[in-house]
Specification:
The protein is an alpha+beta fold. It folds into two domains: 3-95; 99-169, Alpha-Beta Plaits, CATH 3.30.70. It has five helices and four strands, in the order αααβαββαβ. The chain has helices at 9-39, 45-66, 71-95, 111-119, 148-158, and strands spanning 99-106, 125-131, 134-144, 163-169. It has a four-stranded antiparallel β-sheet with strand order 2-3-1-4, covered by helices on one side. A hairpin with a 2-residue loop joins strand 2 (125-131) and strand 3.
Length: 178
């Protein structure tokens, strides 16, 4: 490309906003992943991602300030922000780093469910409890995030009316993990 291309109408009104959009899409995706890594205690990778994220942001915002009269740059910046947030959530979901605790509360006898989960290699802790409507079983298991959907499907297979919650786990020590 020659120097004249950067001063053309096509560059100013199409290419530059597109570059800003792609930059924001990238840096916001990185931001979502960085926050996810921070919440899971990844102390080395999160700052490295943060470095590149801020570098991309600085390049994008610089172009906004150099082109204050170009409304398409503003629109591209905003669209890249929202699109990058969405894309980052999808990427984070696919990466599925870390563990989650699955807490299952069931009024139905849960011994078959517990036995099946243990046969599948999951560590399971069972506690007898008292709910508002009588006796319940509280079942706890810690599962890799990539396997949580499979374990929930197993729970639904054995007890479709079971109440369950899923929470992220920052760190684990000891235990039985598939």
């Amino acid at each position: 490309m020659n120097e004249g291309f950067f001063h053309t109408e096509i560059f100013q009104w199409v290419v530059l906003p597109l570059l800003i959009f792609v930059g924001r899409l990238t840096d916001m995706s990185m931001d979502t992943i960085r926050i996810m890594l921070l919440s899971r205690g990844q102390k080395v990778l999160a700052p490295i991602i943060g470095f590149f994220q801020v570098l991309i942001w600085l390049l994008a915002i610089q172009q906004i300030f150099l082109n204050l009269t170009n409304v398409f740059c503003y629109l591209a910046y905003a669209a890249g922000f929202s699109g990058g947030t969405f894309l980052g959530m999808i990427i984070e979901e696919k990466i599925a780093i870390g563990y989650q605790v699955l807490r299952i509360i069931t009024r139905k006898e849960a011994s078959e469910l517990v036995a099946f989960l243990r046969e599948q290699g999951y560590g399971v802790t069972v506690v007898d409890g008292q709910g508002i409507n009588g006796k319940v079983n509280l079942i706890y298991t810690i599962v890799k995030r990539s396997e949580i959907r499979r374990v929930i499907d197993i729970v639904k297979q054995f007890n479709p009316k079971a109440f369950y919650t899923v929470e992220d786990v920052k760190s684990v020590n000891e235990g039985i993990f598939k």
